[in-house]
Amino acid sequence: MVPLDPVPMPIDHVARGDRDAIALVDRAGRWSFADLEAAVGAVARWLMAQRLNPGDRVASWLPKTRLACVLPLAVPRAGLVHVPINPALRRAQVAHILADSGAALLITQPTRAATLAPGDRPSGCDLADDTALPLTGDGLRPSEADPDALAAILYTSGSTGRPKGVMLSHANLWLGAIAVAHYLKLEPNDRVLGVLPLSFDYGQNQLLSTWAAGASVAPLDYLVAHDVVKAIERVGATTLAGVPPLWVQLLEAEWPEETAARLRRLTNSGGALTPRLVTGLRGRFPCADVYAMYGLTEAFRSTYLPPALLDAHPQAMGRAIPFAEVMAVKPDGTRALGEPGELVHAGPLVAQGYWRDPERTAVRFRPAPNFATHRGMAVWSGDTVIEGEDGLFRFVGRDDEMIKSAGNRISPLEIEEAILAGEEAREAVAVGVPDERLGQGIVVVLAGDATHEEALRTRLRMMLPSFMQPGRYEWRDELPRNANGKLDRAAIRAGVVS
């Protein structure tokens, strides 16, 4: 088991396996930890040769190639800041992230680059073909970066407006890797199948925590559940991380008994596991421990529920992960025990705020409560929880309007802005509704003429990624308003859900 050493190091030191041990497995073959280290050094040296300034942002828009797996270590080693972009995003979202981060370089594939218009990259942002970056050759030695220095910016949707960049230090990434590797009890003989996007905090942590344990990762871009089944057999995976919609799909797939029995560990994030899912996973994967987790990009993970407690407490979020202090806080700032309170996360996993967004940073990142052990800034999640007498936290609800669909946090406003960019509807409100497969499905309520729906659907398919596409359109002559003349979102949401 990985020891809980609280002293962080530069994140490019995290690949700690034996030199000849396997670090990465894909269709091209296997990389040892020596191969991985050489690739990190070679890419870092190439980046240094681009004459970028220290702290410049380097964006990557790639599927799970070997280069994509190397960049989270190589970019910080070169003294730069990595900005991974979800490969499922469309032009408008990519352009926003590039502009907001002020990226000095975008590394992507020619086919993806061709979808961008000339003005989609900010002034001074160069474009690099992913094949131009070497994975062998002379390389930079491991860095001596300050663990508190900025290493990455991960973009996550907010409840209002476009995605915001969460600033993560070397220490944030390092301690997150050590914490997860420790409580999951990862060992060098484990092989983690990496199906989550590397732009997602836990998707990237799959790389970092696996390598911190000296284990190997098998990155996978999949289309259907059967791709995952085949990959587990092909690479001999022992560990799989997923989100609830993926578990639904995997339970519907056909599994050879020998393949299902290979898995020793299932880890869930991005939404709660229902009792039905827990029962299904227990039955399908009898040799696997199931870990339920809750987290925020702003603080990485917050809680986990050990497998031994899952059956007895299926609705619980669990307890604080290593290095984290998690508490429920009442509106008056005192601790809430046995009653609803806002989940507040303090400790060294707390991010440095939102990139170039002091207003939203001030809302979410505030001083820790007086009774907290960890002083300094804490993340005030906006989620309501109850801390029970057993020390376990239970989720009550969200204070914002975020839609969580297929493991993605989706801003309703971003969907509404895309709709109102055309002339098909006068007004629009996006709402998340319960969906067994997706967690939440997306319904949009619109003021306008329903005969324009097909044109709107066609346009949105060009503007938004698949996971942001509305599943249902409900048209009204007028949308309700409150006493202030604003759209009555609560009434609209209540009408849709009911």
TrEMBL record:
<feature type="domain" description="AMP-dependent synthetase/ligase">
    <location>
        <begin position="12"/>
        <end position="355"/>
    </location>
</feature>
<dbReference type="GO" id="GO:0016878">
    <property type="term" value="F:acid-thiol ligase activity"/>
</dbReference>
<protein>
    <submittedName>
        <fullName>AMP-binding protein</fullName>
    </submittedName>
</protein>
<dbReference type="InterPro" id="IPR045851">
    <property type="entry name" value="AMP-bd_C_sf"/>
</dbReference>
<dbReference type="Pfam" id="PF13193">
    <property type="entry name" value="AMP-binding_C"/>
</dbReference>
<dbReference type="InterPro" id="IPR042099">
    <property type="entry name" value="ANL_N_sf"/>
</dbReference>
<dbReference type="Pfam" id="PF00501">
    <property type="entry name" value="AMP-binding"/>
</dbReference>
<dbReference type="InterPro" id="IPR020845">
    <property type="entry name" value="AMP-binding_CS"/>
</dbReference>
<dbReference type="InterPro" id="IPR000873">
    <property type="entry name" value="AMP-dep_synth/lig_dom"/>
</dbReference>
<dbReference type="InterPro" id="IPR050237">
    <property type="entry name" value="ATP-dep_AMP-bd_enzyme"/>
</dbReference>
<feature type="domain" description="AMP-binding enzyme C-terminal">
    <location>
        <begin position="414"/>
        <end position="486"/>
    </location>
</feature>
<dbReference type="InterPro" id="IPR025110">
    <property type="entry name" value="AMP-bd_C"/>
</dbReference>
